[in-house]
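Researcher: I'd like a structural prediction for the single chain below. Treat it as a standalone chain; there are no partners to consider.
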Amino acid sequence: MQRIQSQGVHHITLTGADRQTSIDFWEGVLGMPFIFDQPNLDDPDEGHLYFDPGDGRLITIFTNETRKPDRRRTPMEPGCVHHLAFNVSRASFLLAAERLEARGIGHSGVKDRGFMDSIYFKDPLGLLIELACYKFEPPVGCTHADVMIRAHRIRVAAGDYNIAEPHLAAAIEELVLARQDSLSKDRSPRNPF
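Model: Treating it as a single chain, here is the predicted structure.
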């Protein structure tokens, strides 16, 4: 028996309210270009809007002009979506709270997650949205996941509660040592002074 190997998220589809609410939030607040529009091919009473979250993948929204926004928190029972997280640059992250407040959108304030910083707020339909900003850049040729798995192993071996900057730095160093050859026979740390 073999797995069906995934290669990334293709798209996420959400049930929206009316068309303009979706456009105003996904493009007007989060800056995701509105790139495609057609009927929901499974329900002729709904529209199907497509937005690019920044990596060429898709966030799609089923809309219906009879549905109105309801800002109450979406359900959190097993099987429900807790939140969606979007990657933002450090520059954008540092301005996020101010820009949300300018629109009257309440938020959590900055949350330190050890390997990233986060800020949370709700969309017009009560879905929790997270803006996340990594505290590190992976070495060339590596992914954030490559760094995270090594940092996790380092954290566990150290008996630490959560990943923090020292684990990330050690993971990045390990990846560079493993991926990048050197003419030096001894690559151990030294003091040149």
